[in-house]
Structures are given as C-alpha cells and as structure tokens.
C-alpha cells in the first residue's frame, strides 16, 4: 500500500478509540490493531520515513483498511482480541494455546465429597481450584493432598456400589467413607482442611490438626492422635520446603526470552505465597516483533479466554516494561471484575522471581529451538529423498481403522516444522461403503477432506501420506485428479512382509518401483512417527465408536427397554460407560425400571465378563 493510495481515507478517520484492520489483495485480514485515537494511530502507517521492518512488510501486503469505532479504549482492546482469535491474522502475535486448563475439583454437593482432576467444561456442581499451569502440577498436588487429607477420588457410582474398602484405603490414601469407616463429621474435617490447604491457609490447617491431636490424646485415643501428629509433621516439613513469596494473594510472574526471531514466555504461578507450577509458551510472531510488543499482545490473549476468566488473580508481574501496561490493566479489571494490578517494576519482593521467570524462558527456548532444528533437519532430508521442490512445511497423513468392517473410522494427522499440529487433527466416520473395503474408505476420507479444503480455499499440504501400498495410493491419486489438485506429492507407506518396524516399503505416486530406506535413516523414522500417530488417532476413535455401538446394541436386545426407557437410563447415568459401571440397585432407582428389569439390564451389560 503506497502512502498516497488511501491518503484521503486515513485523514478522514475520527479521533476516537477503536480497532483497525489491514486487508490484502484477496480482502483477507492480515493485521488487527487497537487505538486510543484511530486517526493518529492509522496515520502512523502512512508516514514516508518508516524504518520498522515489521511495519514495512505489513504495508507491502496491505491494499486497504477498515475500522470499527468503540465507546472506549477497553472495548477496543476486547474487540481486537476477538478479531485476532477469529481471523488469525498473519502479522499479529498469536497465542497458540487451544487447550482447556486443568483444575482440582471438589464435589461439595455430595455428603462425602470427592477430590479429583478436572479438565474441560465445568458442568458438575462443586468447588474448582485452579486453573493450574499444566496437568503435571495438578496431578502432583492431587497425589500429595491424598497422602495428607485422604479424601476419596472414586466416582459416585463406584462409591455407591462398594461393599468393602478399595486399594486406596489399603495404602492409606482414603478413609473409606464408602463403607462407613469414617464418620461424616470426621470426613467434613478432612474436607475443611483440604479447602484451607488449597486456599493457602496452612497455619489454620496446622492449628486445627494440632487441636484434634490434643483432643484425641485427652480421650486416650492414641492411635488417632498419632495419625494427627504424623499429619502435623508433614505439614510443617512442607511449609519449610516450599518456595514462599512475602505477598499473599494470587500472582502470575511473566519472563520473556528472545533468540533468532523466536520468543518464549514463561509464566510462574504463585498462589497464596506458594509456587504451584509454571508453563512456557511459544507464541506465533510476525517477523521483527520486539519482546515488548509480544508481551503486550500476549497478556490479553492469555487472560481473556473462557478457560481463565474464572480464576482470581491479584497481581501480574512482568519482566519487561510495556507501553500499554495501564491500558491492559484497566481492560482486565473491567472484564474480570477484579482489582488486578499489572506491574513491571523490579521491586525487592519480585526481582528474584522475575529473574527466575526469564531464566526459565531462556532454557525452554533453547530446548524448543533444538527440537525444532532436529525436525527441520529431518524435513530437509525428506525433501532431498523425495526430490521435493520446497521444504514440506505441511504434511497430512491418513489411516483407516475398523474391526471386520465394524465402526470404520479414518484419521488425518498434520505435521509441520513445529512438529505435530494436534489442533488440526481430524477424524471421519466412514459410511455407505462395503464393510472392510479399505480402498473405498480411503477414497471417501480423501474426497471429503480435500473437497472441504478446496471449497473453503484453505491451504493444501505439500505432502500427503497414506497408510498402505499401491491400492491406497491409487485412490489418493484418483481423488486429487478428480478435484483437479496439482502440486501435492503423494506417497504410501506399507509394512514389510513380516510387518517389522524398519522394513517399511515406500511407494511414490506415478512410480512403479518401491523405495527402501535403511532402518537407521532419519527420514524413515520421521515417516514412521507420522504414520504411527495417524494409526493411534484412528484406532482410538474406532475403539470408542465400537464400544458405544456395542453397548447401544446390547440395550436394544433387552425386552421391555424401548426408546424412552433407553433414553431415561442414559440420561440418569450420563452415558453408556457410566451405565455399565452401575450396580443392579442403582439401575433399579431409575424411574420406570423395576428390579426385575434392572437385573436384566445388568446381566446383559456384563454377559461377556
């Protein structure tokens, strides 16, 4: 976009807050920005003395722009964030983090609450503690709390059906409320201690445990007093070993590192003065993005998403100074309805933690770049072996899974210079083919996949891999020919006669001869990994579908269980798997199910055991 091409347009913009969007020749959004003053901010891009390489690269591609005026600056920031999430513009910083975050869940509505790991939608009533930075820190915390406070972890259906204690009781990680080995009052004390511990009130927990120890001792219940004494010792040891920060509250500390145009963001999570874990992110950056700009873009994307909006954060500590700090702080306060503080000051309380966060970012960036370099080296070797004109930056691999034609599923896994791109994985239910016809299944999945990509004008892969030999490869070639797709290489990878790893045969579309690679060849290892990942994804989907179909068909065989009763059973237990775990007594509690019918249902569901 030349400085003169839209001079009149940008000069007529209002001096109000809002969002601007630059568009390329295909009218695709390539950059989204926010502004306190749209006229002043957008006019900056049309100056003749611009030297910033990132801005120059953007303006070379931009042919037009659009704006949206907002009521205030905070609305502009939120709209910018939503547009970035929706359109994933090429020249914006993108947080590649599409997973839900893990929590500890306490089912407080139950008479004997369970404490468990939770990820996903918060459907069940109860208390959620978190989110935690990663699954490892949750599981570690859960295992430790089990040892300390001995709350149950079993599902309610399992809890109801117990007639004797399970293994968790035997290894001293549960007090067995399922068989009344603990009173409701005593169990409630365990629950209260757990909540206090998770909310950082360790002194209150120790004081409570000490009082109970003294009471048990006064009642000459020395065994119970000894158990409280052991718990007290563990809590005191834990407190002496923990990293503690002087300030209370929930604090996130950000450290950034940059090398060779790539940035790592390390987030250290401190809750009520205690370190609970950390996680490192590698946001997707346009060229020549500074650390400060990356951090300014990262913070709103990190906090303003459904996975984190429920968490209570008191302070965000940054390792680098950013120009938009107060703007971001105001938007977070308004959106999250909290008095959250964003600071980049290196005070005595946080200086050491800021340095630790930066060190973590530096080390993770080294590891990440080493892994990426290894992948790029393998892709370069693959390019050479297959005589590809360019580096294969996007590879898609397909596999079919079924049992004698039953529950046929197909998988598509995607691989690139960052490794496996799991958010792009897809699975397909194959229908309307002869049972067990792998060729027809492969034809169907490829036709559906590439019809969709072509219709939506989405990027095509550089290389397509099918799990199989010449037959599957011919189906792939036929699909691409039908869809008039060219410039995409096709290969098939088939196991050797003895189906041993390392003896695979490689088939290339349009060539009769097979390609053989030595068992220690890194190209073969790469192809094996991608093929095995496609197989894993396909067989997992197949087994899930097969199990569901078989349970469904079992219910259909039971006389007296029609469509309505089947729906009542599934609704009551939340699914087929939970129904199968239910006892005969539990099934009989469902409205309209007699004890006789419940016994029939239970017998049919367990006839193979």
Q: How do the strands and helices of this protein lay out in sequence?
A:
Blueprint: H1 7-11, E1 18-23, E2 29-35, H2 38-44, H3 53-61, E3 64-69, H4 73-87, E4 102-106, E5 115-119, E6 127-129, H5 135-149, H6 156-161, H7 167-170, H8 184-198, H9 202-218, H10 222-241, E7 250-259, E8 262-271, E9 274-281, H11 291-303, E10 315-318, H12 325-336, E11 341-343, H13 351-386, E12 394-403, E13 406-416, E14 419-420, E15 426-429, H14 438-455, E16 463-467, H15 470-482, E17 489-494, E18 505-508, H16 522-556, H17 563-573, H18 576-581, H19 584-588, H20 595-605
Parallel strand pairs: 7-10, 10-11, 12-16, 16-17
Antiparallel strand pairs: 1-2, 1-3, 4-5, 4-6, 7-8, 8-9, 12-13, 13-14, 13-15, 17-18
Helix pairs in contact: 4-12, 8-9, 9-10, 11-12, 14-15
Description:
This protein has 609 residues and is α+β, with helices and mostly antiparallel strands. The protein has 5 domains: 7-73, GIY-YIG endonuclease, CATH 3.40.1440.10; 102-241, no CATH class; 250-365, Nucleotidyltransferase, domain 5; 394-545, 2-Layer Sandwich (Nucleotidyltransferase, domain 5); 557-605, DNA polymerase, domain 1 (Orthogonal Bundle). The protein is 45% helix and 18% strand. It has helices spanning 7-11, 38-44, 53-61, 73-87, 135-149, 156-161, 167-170, 184-198, 202-218, 222-241, 291-303, 325-336, 351-386, 438-455, 470-482, 522-556, 563-573, 576-581, 584-588, 595-605; strands spanning 18-23, 29-35, 64-69, 102-106, 115-119, 127-129, 250-259, 262-271, 274-281, 315-318, 341-343, 394-403, 406-416, 419-420, 426-429, 463-467, 489-494, 505-508. Strands 12, 13, 14, 15, 16, 17 and 18 form a 7-stranded mixed β-sheet that branches. A hairpin with a 2-residue loop joins strand 8 (262-271) and strand 9 (274-281). The longest helix is centred in the middle third of the chain and has 36 residues, at 351-386. The termini are far apart. The model has no long low-confidence stretch (mean pLDDT 84).
